[in-house]
Write a structure and sequence with these properties.
alpha/beta; Rossmann fold; 2 domains; 7-stranded mixed β-sheet; 4-stranded parallel β-sheet; binds adenosine-5'-diphosphate; monosaccharide binding; ATP_PFK; metal ion binding; ATP-dependent 6-phosphofructokinase
Protein backbone atom coordinates (compact mmCIF):
# COMPACT_ATOMS: atom_id res chain seq x y z
CA UNK A 1 0.00 0.00 0.00
CA UNK A 2 1.40 3.38 -0.99
CA UNK A 3 -1.39 5.91 -0.69
CA UNK A 4 -4.16 6.19 1.86
CA UNK A 5 -7.02 8.64 2.29
CA UNK A 6 -8.61 10.03 5.42
CA UNK A 7 -12.06 11.56 5.82
CA UNK A 8 -14.41 12.69 8.57
CA UNK A 9 -18.12 12.00 8.12
CA UNK A 10 -21.44 12.39 9.92
CA UNK A 11 -21.67 14.64 12.97
CA UNK A 12 -18.47 16.37 14.02
CA UNK A 13 -16.89 15.60 17.37
CA UNK A 14 -14.07 17.17 19.38
CA UNK A 15 -10.92 15.12 18.84
CA UNK A 16 -11.53 14.42 15.16
CA UNK A 17 -8.62 16.76 14.37
CA UNK A 18 -6.33 14.87 16.70
CA UNK A 19 -7.33 11.67 14.89
CA UNK A 20 -6.64 13.21 11.45
CA UNK A 21 -3.25 14.38 12.72
CA UNK A 22 -2.41 10.89 13.95
CA UNK A 23 -3.42 9.28 10.63
CA UNK A 24 -1.39 11.76 8.61
CA UNK A 25 1.70 11.70 10.79
CA UNK A 26 1.72 7.93 11.30
CA UNK A 27 1.09 7.42 7.59
CA UNK A 28 4.03 9.62 6.62
CA UNK A 29 6.20 8.02 9.31
CA UNK A 30 5.45 4.66 7.69
CA UNK A 31 6.35 5.97 4.23
CA UNK A 32 2.81 6.40 2.89
CA UNK A 33 1.32 9.25 0.92
CA UNK A 34 -1.75 10.58 2.73
CA UNK A 35 -4.62 12.30 0.96
CA UNK A 36 -7.24 14.27 2.85
CA UNK A 37 -10.78 13.86 1.53
CA UNK A 38 -12.85 16.93 2.37
CA UNK A 39 -16.51 16.91 3.45
CA UNK A 40 -16.92 13.20 3.98
CA UNK A 41 -18.46 11.05 1.28
CA UNK A 42 -19.81 14.06 -0.61
CA UNK A 43 -16.25 15.36 -1.02
CA UNK A 44 -15.20 11.87 -2.08
CA UNK A 45 -17.80 11.85 -4.86
CA UNK A 46 -16.73 15.35 -5.91
CA UNK A 47 -13.03 14.38 -5.89
CA UNK A 48 -12.36 17.05 -3.27
CA UNK A 49 -8.90 15.75 -2.36
CA UNK A 50 -5.95 17.47 -0.76
CA UNK A 51 -2.42 16.12 -0.35
CA UNK A 52 -1.48 16.11 3.32
CA UNK A 53 2.00 16.75 4.64
CA UNK A 54 3.38 17.08 8.15
CA UNK A 55 2.53 20.78 8.19
CA UNK A 56 -1.10 20.30 7.12
CA UNK A 57 -1.91 18.91 10.54
CA UNK A 58 0.22 21.29 12.59
CA UNK A 59 -1.57 23.23 15.30
CA UNK A 60 -4.82 21.29 15.19
CA UNK A 61 -4.58 18.79 18.04
CA UNK A 62 -6.34 21.19 20.41
CA UNK A 63 -9.03 22.36 18.03
CA UNK A 64 -12.64 21.15 17.99
CA UNK A 65 -14.49 20.37 14.76
CA UNK A 66 -12.63 18.90 11.80
CA UNK A 67 -10.24 20.64 9.41
CA UNK A 68 -11.38 18.27 6.66
CA UNK A 69 -14.98 19.28 7.37
CA UNK A 70 -17.78 16.79 7.40
CA UNK A 71 -21.04 16.21 5.59
CA UNK A 72 -23.92 13.87 5.10
CA UNK A 73 -24.34 12.47 1.60
CA UNK A 74 -27.42 10.62 0.32
CA UNK A 75 -25.87 9.96 -3.11
CA UNK A 76 -23.20 7.78 -1.52
CA UNK A 77 -25.83 5.43 -0.16
CA UNK A 78 -26.67 4.26 -3.70
CA UNK A 79 -24.77 1.60 -5.62
CA UNK A 80 -24.02 4.09 -8.34
CA UNK A 81 -22.62 6.51 -5.79
CA UNK A 82 -20.38 3.85 -4.29
CA UNK A 83 -19.10 2.78 -7.73
CA UNK A 84 -18.35 6.39 -8.54
CA UNK A 85 -16.50 6.77 -5.21
CA UNK A 86 -14.30 3.76 -6.00
CA UNK A 87 -13.48 5.27 -9.40
CA UNK A 88 -12.44 8.55 -7.79
CA UNK A 89 -10.25 6.78 -5.24
CA UNK A 90 -8.65 4.49 -7.81
CA UNK A 91 -7.92 7.39 -10.16
CA UNK A 92 -6.04 9.08 -7.32
CA UNK A 93 -4.19 5.86 -6.41
CA UNK A 94 -5.84 5.63 -2.99
CA UNK A 95 -5.89 2.00 -1.85
CA UNK A 96 -7.07 2.42 1.73
CA UNK A 97 -9.25 4.92 3.58
CA UNK A 98 -9.51 5.78 7.27
CA UNK A 99 -13.09 6.82 8.00
CA UNK A 100 -13.54 8.88 11.16
CA UNK A 101 -17.22 9.07 12.09
CA UNK A 102 -20.22 7.28 13.51
CA UNK A 103 -22.06 4.10 12.60
CA UNK A 104 -23.66 5.58 9.45
CA UNK A 105 -20.20 6.46 8.17
CA UNK A 106 -19.03 2.92 8.96
CA UNK A 107 -21.89 1.44 6.94
CA UNK A 108 -20.52 3.43 4.03
CA UNK A 109 -17.00 2.21 4.76
CA UNK A 110 -18.20 -1.42 4.72
CA UNK A 111 -19.63 -0.82 1.23
CA UNK A 112 -16.31 0.60 0.02
CA UNK A 113 -14.50 -2.42 1.45
CA UNK A 114 -16.83 -4.76 -0.46
CA UNK A 115 -15.80 -2.93 -3.62
CA UNK A 116 -12.09 -3.45 -3.05
CA UNK A 117 -11.03 -0.31 -1.17
CA UNK A 118 -9.53 -1.21 2.21
CA UNK A 119 -11.26 0.73 4.98
CA UNK A 120 -10.72 1.16 8.70
CA UNK A 121 -13.15 3.02 10.94
CA UNK A 122 -12.24 5.28 13.83
CA UNK A 123 -15.24 5.98 16.09
CA UNK A 124 -15.72 9.74 16.34
CA UNK A 125 -19.05 10.81 17.81
CA UNK A 126 -20.01 12.60 21.02
CA UNK A 127 -22.92 10.19 21.58
CA UNK A 128 -20.78 7.14 22.42
CA UNK A 129 -23.40 5.05 20.61
CA UNK A 130 -21.17 2.50 18.90
CA UNK A 131 -20.97 -1.15 19.89
CA UNK A 132 -17.58 -2.78 20.41
CA UNK A 133 -15.84 0.18 21.98
CA UNK A 134 -16.03 1.42 25.56
CA UNK A 135 -15.85 4.99 24.39
CA UNK A 136 -15.77 7.12 21.26
CA UNK A 137 -13.73 10.20 20.37
CA UNK A 138 -15.58 13.33 21.53
CA UNK A 139 -17.68 11.73 24.24
CA UNK A 140 -15.45 12.78 27.13
CA UNK A 141 -15.31 16.37 25.89
CA UNK A 142 -19.09 16.52 25.46
CA UNK A 143 -19.65 15.19 28.98
CA UNK A 144 -17.27 17.79 30.37
CA UNK A 145 -19.06 20.55 28.44
CA UNK A 146 -22.36 19.42 29.95
CA UNK A 147 -20.85 19.31 33.43
CA UNK A 148 -19.54 22.85 33.11
CA UNK A 149 -22.97 24.09 31.99
CA UNK A 150 -24.93 22.19 34.63
CA UNK A 151 -22.61 23.38 37.42
CA UNK A 152 -23.45 26.94 36.39
CA UNK A 153 -27.15 26.18 36.25
CA UNK A 154 -26.91 24.64 39.70
CA UNK A 155 -25.61 27.94 41.11
CA UNK A 156 -28.82 29.62 40.01
CA UNK A 157 -30.95 26.65 41.02
CA UNK A 158 -29.52 26.87 44.54
CA UNK A 159 -29.69 30.66 44.84
CA UNK A 160 -33.28 30.87 43.63
CA UNK A 161 -34.49 27.54 44.96
CA UNK A 162 -35.58 26.34 41.56
CA UNK A 163 -35.90 23.05 39.80
CA UNK A 164 -34.17 22.82 36.44
CA UNK A 165 -34.61 20.27 33.72
CA UNK A 166 -31.57 20.18 31.44
CA UNK A 167 -31.83 18.51 28.04
CA UNK A 168 -28.60 17.03 26.71
CA UNK A 169 -27.73 15.36 23.40
CA UNK A 170 -28.34 11.67 22.80
CA UNK A 171 -31.13 10.81 20.40
CA UNK A 172 -30.62 7.08 20.62
CA UNK A 173 -28.16 6.74 23.50
CA UNK A 174 -28.30 7.95 27.06
CA UNK A 175 -24.53 7.87 27.64
CA UNK A 176 -24.02 11.64 27.86
CA UNK A 177 -26.99 12.03 30.21
CA UNK A 178 -25.78 9.15 32.37
CA UNK A 179 -22.17 10.24 32.80
CA UNK A 180 -22.93 13.95 33.05
CA UNK A 181 -25.92 13.34 35.34
CA UNK A 182 -23.86 11.21 37.70
CA UNK A 183 -20.96 13.67 37.64
CA UNK A 184 -23.27 16.63 38.35
CA UNK A 185 -25.18 14.94 41.12
CA UNK A 186 -28.44 15.23 39.15
CA UNK A 187 -31.45 14.22 41.21
CA UNK A 188 -33.04 12.44 38.25
CA UNK A 189 -31.65 11.18 34.95
CA UNK A 190 -33.89 10.21 32.04
CA UNK A 191 -32.47 8.15 29.18
CA UNK A 192 -34.07 6.48 26.15
CA UNK A 193 -32.99 3.03 27.32
CA UNK A 194 -35.02 3.16 30.54
CA UNK A 195 -38.74 3.73 31.04
CA UNK A 196 -39.60 6.62 33.31
CA UNK A 197 -42.68 7.55 35.24
CA UNK A 198 -43.82 11.05 36.10
CA UNK A 199 -45.21 9.63 39.36
CA UNK A 200 -41.79 8.50 40.42
CA UNK A 201 -40.09 11.77 39.45
CA UNK A 202 -42.69 13.71 41.42
CA UNK A 203 -42.31 11.39 44.38
CA UNK A 204 -38.53 11.94 44.41
CA UNK A 205 -38.91 15.70 44.13
CA UNK A 206 -41.47 15.79 46.94
CA UNK A 207 -39.35 13.57 49.13
CA UNK A 208 -36.35 15.86 48.81
CA UNK A 209 -38.59 18.92 49.28
CA UNK A 210 -39.79 17.45 52.59
CA UNK A 211 -36.25 17.17 53.84
CA UNK A 212 -35.69 20.83 53.06
CA UNK A 213 -34.23 20.69 49.59
CA UNK A 214 -35.59 23.54 47.49
CA UNK A 215 -33.74 22.97 44.24
CA UNK A 216 -33.16 20.04 41.92
CA UNK A 217 -31.47 19.26 38.63
CA UNK A 218 -32.99 16.74 36.26
CA UNK A 219 -30.89 15.66 33.26
CA UNK A 220 -32.81 14.39 30.24
CA UNK A 221 -31.38 12.85 27.07
CA UNK A 222 -33.06 14.34 23.98
CA UNK A 223 -34.15 10.86 22.83
CA UNK A 224 -36.57 10.61 25.75
CA UNK A 225 -38.88 13.24 24.28
CA UNK A 226 -39.51 16.96 24.44
CA UNK A 227 -37.98 18.45 27.58
CA UNK A 228 -40.67 21.15 27.57
CA UNK A 229 -43.46 18.57 27.52
CA UNK A 230 -41.86 16.55 30.32
CA UNK A 231 -41.40 19.71 32.38
CA UNK A 232 -45.05 20.66 31.80
CA UNK A 233 -46.21 17.29 33.11
CA UNK A 234 -44.05 17.55 36.22
CA UNK A 235 -45.01 21.18 36.80
CA UNK A 236 -48.70 20.28 36.67
CA UNK A 237 -48.20 17.78 39.43
CA UNK A 238 -45.77 19.49 41.80
CA UNK A 239 -47.16 22.97 41.32
CA UNK A 240 -43.88 24.78 41.73
CA UNK A 241 -41.74 26.58 39.24
CA UNK A 242 -39.57 24.61 36.88
CA UNK A 243 -37.10 25.87 34.27
CA UNK A 244 -35.94 24.11 31.14
CA UNK A 245 -32.52 24.51 29.52
CA UNK A 246 -31.71 22.83 26.22
CA UNK A 247 -27.93 22.74 25.88
CA UNK A 248 -27.93 21.98 22.15
CA UNK A 249 -24.92 22.29 19.90
CA UNK A 250 -22.48 23.69 22.45
CA UNK A 251 -22.04 20.00 23.30
CA UNK A 252 -20.53 19.25 19.89
CA UNK A 253 -17.81 21.88 19.93
CA UNK A 254 -14.84 22.98 21.95
CA UNK A 255 -11.27 21.98 22.54
CA UNK A 256 -10.98 18.22 23.14
CA UNK A 257 -10.11 17.00 26.63
CA UNK A 258 -6.85 15.19 27.33
CA UNK A 259 -8.70 11.87 27.28
CA UNK A 260 -10.12 12.55 23.81
CA UNK A 261 -6.79 13.76 22.40
CA UNK A 262 -5.00 10.68 23.69
CA UNK A 263 -7.74 8.35 22.46
CA UNK A 264 -7.84 10.00 19.03
CA UNK A 265 -4.06 9.87 18.66
CA UNK A 266 -3.96 6.19 19.58
CA UNK A 267 -6.90 5.21 17.40
CA UNK A 268 -5.74 7.19 14.37
CA UNK A 269 -2.28 5.65 14.54
CA UNK A 270 -3.70 2.15 14.96
CA UNK A 271 -5.96 2.62 11.93
CA UNK A 272 -2.90 3.21 9.74
CA UNK A 273 -1.16 0.16 11.16
CA UNK A 274 -4.22 -1.97 10.42
CA UNK A 275 -4.31 -0.82 6.79
CA UNK A 276 -0.60 -1.58 6.44
CA UNK A 277 -1.17 -5.05 7.88
CA UNK A 278 -3.72 -5.68 5.16
CA UNK A 279 -6.89 -5.38 7.24
CA UNK A 280 -10.12 -4.04 5.84
CA UNK A 281 -13.67 -3.43 7.10
CA UNK A 282 -12.30 -3.17 10.63
CA UNK A 283 -13.09 -0.64 13.31
CA UNK A 284 -10.66 0.46 15.97
CA UNK A 285 -12.18 0.19 19.43
CA UNK A 286 -11.01 0.50 22.99
CA UNK A 287 -11.93 -2.17 25.51
CA UNK A 288 -10.61 -2.12 29.07
CA UNK A 289 -8.04 0.51 28.02
CA UNK A 290 -6.62 -1.64 25.23
CA UNK A 291 -7.04 -0.90 21.55
CA UNK A 292 -8.76 -3.64 19.57
CA UNK A 293 -9.62 -4.20 15.92
CA UNK A 294 -13.16 -5.41 15.48
CA UNK A 295 -15.25 -6.35 12.49
CA UNK A 296 -16.91 -3.15 11.27
CA UNK A 297 -20.03 -4.87 9.92
CA UNK A 298 -20.47 -6.58 13.26
CA UNK A 299 -20.00 -3.31 15.16
CA UNK A 300 -22.73 -1.52 13.20
CA UNK A 301 -25.10 -4.49 13.41
CA UNK A 302 -24.93 -4.81 17.18
CA UNK A 303 -26.90 -2.48 19.43
CA UNK A 304 -24.90 -0.24 21.71
CA UNK A 305 -25.73 -0.57 25.40
CA UNK A 306 -24.83 2.18 27.84
CA UNK A 307 -23.43 1.31 31.26
CA UNK A 308 -26.70 1.00 33.16
CA UNK A 309 -24.71 0.47 36.35
CA UNK A 310 -24.22 4.25 36.27
CA UNK A 311 -27.99 4.70 36.17
CA UNK A 312 -28.52 2.60 39.27
CA UNK A 313 -25.63 4.26 41.10
CA UNK A 314 -26.85 7.77 40.27
CA UNK A 315 -30.29 6.92 41.69
CA UNK A 316 -28.81 5.62 44.91
CA UNK A 317 -26.47 8.58 45.37
CA UNK A 318 -29.24 11.10 44.66
CA UNK A 319 -31.57 9.53 47.22
P1 LIG B 1 -22.78 9.11 11.55
O1 LIG B 1 -21.60 8.57 10.84
O2 LIG B 1 -22.42 10.19 12.52
O3 LIG B 1 -23.65 8.02 12.15
P2 LIG B 1 -24.76 9.45 9.40
O4 LIG B 1 -25.62 8.34 9.88
O5 LIG B 1 -25.41 10.71 8.97
O6 LIG B 1 -23.68 9.90 10.49
O7 LIG B 1 -23.89 8.88 8.19
C1 LIG B 1 -22.94 9.68 7.55
C2 LIG B 1 -22.90 9.34 6.07
O8 LIG B 1 -22.51 7.97 5.90
C3 LIG B 1 -24.23 9.45 5.35
O9 LIG B 1 -24.56 10.77 4.96
C4 LIG B 1 -23.98 8.57 4.13
O10 LIG B 1 -23.23 9.25 3.14
C5 LIG B 1 -23.11 7.45 4.72
N1 LIG B 1 -23.98 6.30 5.06
C6 LIG B 1 -24.82 6.17 6.10
N2 LIG B 1 -25.49 5.00 6.07
C7 LIG B 1 -25.04 4.35 4.96
C8 LIG B 1 -25.34 3.08 4.36
N3 LIG B 1 -26.24 2.24 4.89
N4 LIG B 1 -24.69 2.76 3.22
C9 LIG B 1 -23.79 3.60 2.67
N5 LIG B 1 -23.47 4.81 3.18
C10 LIG B 1 -24.08 5.18 4.32
Amino acid sequence: MQTIGVLTSGGDAPGMNAAIRAVVRMGIYRGLKVVGIRKGYSGLLAGDFVDMDLGSVADIIHRGGTILQTARCEAFKTEEGQRHAVEKLTARGIEGVVVIGGDGSFRGAVELAKRGIATVGVPGTIDNDIAGTDTTIGFDTAVNTVIEAVDKIRDTATSHERTFLVEVMGRRAGDIALSAGLACGAETILIPEEEYSIDEIVERLERSFKRGKRHSILVVAEGVGSAMAIADKIRERIGWEMRVTVLGHIQRGGSPTAADRVLASRMGAMAVELLLQGHSAKMVGIQNRRLVAIDMEDAVARPHRPDLGLFDLARILAI
